[in-house]
Amino acid sequence: MNAISQNLAHWPARVDMAAAFRWSVELNLHEAVSNHFSLAVNPEGSRFLINPNGRHFARIKASDLLELDANDPETMNRPDAPDPTAWGLHGSIHRALPHARCVLHVHSIHATVLASLADSRLPAIDQNTAMFFDRHVVDDHYGGMAFGDEGARCAQMLQNPKITTMIMGNHGVLILGRSVADAFNRLTYFERAAETYIRALQTGRPLRVLSDEVAEKTAQEWEDYPGYADAHLREIKALLDVSQPDYAL
Fold first, then answer.
1. Cα–Cα–Cα angle for 161, 83, 34, nearest 5°?
2. Three-state DSSP state, 223
3. What pTM, to 2 d.p., does this model score?
4. In 3-144, where does DSSP find H-type helix?
5. Which residue of 87, 105, 145, 215 could cross-link 210, Cys pair, CB 3.0 to 4.6 Å?
């Protein structure tokens, strides 16, 4: 497959990904030319789209995304090789976890504040934080930038398909989803949930923590809510169609 035909493959998925990158800038979830989003495009989950090395999220277009094979040992020798930490983290996850269809990793402000606390767990103190009840894992063993070994270690912690979110201690957050819409919706809610929790802690007053039973019920209700994530992404694309139509090129 030549470069042009490769960039036309999986077009709707590419457009969804480009929209997620652009809207991350609108929400200030990005960080310089760092951070990466990826999406599996084959049933095994081993082939995936990812942002090119050194490209600001605000400039990414659908046709810019790289298509990589997680099992290709020559990937980092490509002339358009991805960022090595993107390959280390996202490559490791897509290589090991077929259920991890979409993987979003950012160092957003409130998620990273939470990841910097000695106890980085997110308690269910409201409807949004309840979305993550018993569905997040905290990585307490940051070992440096996410090159190969660190990426493989993180992938090991995400084997349980129920886990949708990794709070990466001393680092940031990583979100898994069934689709771009599912993962990006969860990412935006996680950042809001982390902000709510941090602001609640700042009051110095006792927290009103939901019971496990109510928190689990609410988390399931979020998972079953009909069409919500798809509608969220649809509206983001409608806004971008007006303000930044080149995202879909």
1. 80
2. helix
3. 0.95
4. 3-8, 11-26, 84-86, 92-96, 109-115, 127-130
5. 215
Query: Pseudo-torsion of CA 53, 176, 100, 233, nearest 10°?
Result: -80
Rounded to the nearest angstrom, the gap between the alpha carbon of residue 88 and the centroid of all alpha carbons in its chain is: 15
What the chain holds in terms of domains, given with CATH numbers, is 3-248 (3.40.225.10)
Under a CB-based contact definition with an 8 Å cutoff, are residues 67 and 52 in contact? no
Tokens of 51: 């942002």
pLDDT score for 4: 47
User: Which of helix, strand or coil describes residue 72?
Assistant: coil
Q: What is the mean pLDDT of each run of 10 residues along the chain (249 residues)?
A: 60 98 98 96 98 98 98 97 97 97 98 98 98 98 85 95 97 98 98 98 98 98 96 98 98
**Beta carbons within 8 Å of 209's beta carbon, 6+ residues apart:** 123, 124, 125
**Beta pairing class for 136-139 and 165-168:** parallel
Work out the angle at residue 38's Cα, subtended by the Cα atoms of residues 166 and 26, and round it to the nearest 5 degrees: 85
Burial (CB count <10 Å: 0-12, 13-18, 19+), residue 233: buried
In this prediction, residue 145 carries a pLDDT of 86
